[in-house]
Amino acid sequence: MGTAEARHTREQEASEGPRAFREFLAVVTEQRRLDPSLPIEVIMAGAMRSYPQQAESLRDMAKYLAAQGTDYGRIALLEGRREEFVAWVGQHYSTLAEALRAAGPALRTVDDVLRVIDRFLGTPTVTPTPGAGEKPVQALYQPLDDGLLGSGAEASVRKARRLSDNSLVALREPLGASPLQGQRDKLLAQWKEEVRLWEQVSRHPNVVRLIESGTNPHPWIAMELMAEGLRSFLHRKDWPRGQPPVSQSLQWAISLCDALGYAHRAGIIHRDIKPENVLFTNEGVAKLSDWGAARHFLGLSSGLKGSLPYAAPEQLPPSGEIDQQSDVFQMGVVLYELFAGRYPWTADGAHPLDFTFMDRIKDPAYAPPLPSRWRTLPPGLDAVIMRAVAKPKPDRYYTGNHLRDELTKVAEGRA
Q1: Is the domain of 57 the same as that of 107?
Q2: Which of the residues 108, 169, 177, 368 has an alpha carbon 20 to 30 A from that of 334?
Q3: More confident residue, 19 or 361
Q4: How many CB atoms lie within 10 A of CB 279?
């Protein structure tokens, strides 16, 4: 290619921009128009997650920015290997989000945001030595003999006493013998990610509080001790007419959606919302628990991380893009159970014993009966719950805060 032809090509790219990058700009611009209250880093996260779907998106983005004179050569070097780029941004998301928040009102255009991101390209990741300088968990906590609270495939949760002040906590530790080194490294990385994300949301009053954590002699987490889970809470025999009052259930729903929205505003997706992960204090405060499947908006693609009966359609094979709207769907299924007293995707409303429910979740023509078929509900509540479990994403609420706001209108009689 001659010099004149090359210059013409660069000028053409600079004036028109490649198709994929224009689509990226359109996604960001449209979302800012729809919800100006969303932080720019959350909008960027959603756009960057959708953007790599285009086959040449990162290469086009690099070409376009290079044509604009922006130093984005490091992305060009990736030659379209979008998984590496998305993984890098995921690793540095906390630092990145902090910088974006600090810039605040100065971020008026996408280019402003990209300049902030560009400053952090190449920032090294520092990984601390596991257990270095830590006391072993046995020196800090004493598990109680009768304190088993739950057990899964990889870990158990027990009631334990903190030796420093005799307070009671829930202590989660891995099951079985120590894993091989390769497995240990993987588990340690997963544990670190869970702790990092949980710490960002733990301050919310409706998130189970993370007290402390460590890696000596294995990864462990001490968390707020809760009284019981939503499923057993709903089936208490002392509820009037066998179910909690609707007004009380609405307050629980609003507080849980507020916690979910808090996570979404931090760029975090829970991915495993179900009754077992909604816990209550002795005072009856509802809280979201178990952030082991959580991830930042960036670094996500597809596939199921969570529980099949509460999966959104896009989480089931053939899976699609997972984002905060997948959380909204999962919360909608939990709310359906909370208000209708039934699971929405089985014919008899019972918790599924086989996999036929998956066909109903994926079938765009199937909708469960309105929750008000099973009990009297306030005006507007049916519509809110059914929109939360809408199969097409454009018909679904965008974040936990949107769902919270609509539930609040129902509670205040404004629906």
Answers
A1: yes
A2: 169
A3: 361
A4: 23
Q: Which two tokens stand for residue 140?
A: 């800090």
Which of left, alpha, beta for 385 (phi over 0: left; psi -120 to 50: alpha)? alpha
| Pure H helices in 92-180 | 93-103, 110-119
Cβ contact 157:171 at 8 Å: yes
H/E run at residue 403: helix 400-411
Is 151 found in the same domain as 237? no
The pLDDT of 76-90, averaged and rounded, is: 41
d(CA 357, CA 40): 37
Q: Are 158 and 146 within 8 A, CB to CB?
A: no
Write the pLDDT tens digit of every residue in 292-312.
888 876 545 455 667 889 999
Neighbours of 66 (CB within 10 A): 17
> What is this structure's pTM?
0.70
Q: CA dihedral in degrees (181, 184, 190, 192; nearest 10)?
A: -100
71 has pLDDT over 70: no
pLDDT digits (tens, 9 = 90+) for 149-171: 987 767 889 999 999 999 999 99
194 with 249, same domain: the answer is no
- For residues 96 and 48, is the Cβ–Cβ distance under 8 A? no
CA distance 361 to 346: 10
**Structural domain span for residue 25:** 7-119
